[in-house]
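note to self — DONT lose this again. spent like an hour looking for the file last time. sequence + predicted structure for the chain T wanted, 92 res
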Amino acid sequence: FTRELSMKFRRNVVPMTDIYLSANLVNEKRGMFYVEGKIEDSSGTLLTQASGVFIPIPEEIMKMIKNQLYYIDDGRQYLEKAMRVCGPRAVK
């Protein structure tokens, strides 16, 4: 879950244009993940910067609360992708 999230909107995103999102794990400390990300247009112009601190949710807790969360397509697709990317750490 998100503990902190900070975003800086640098430029407007033009509708119907290609944008590129990237994120990097900067640090892992005390069970929290520190991440930085950005959105750029096709020419590499920075549109948005973000940084955040995220806390992994134990699998048994996630089972208890997942029916209370709202997702597009029930969230299954996104949870499966997170599990593939993060591996077992995603559900410590």
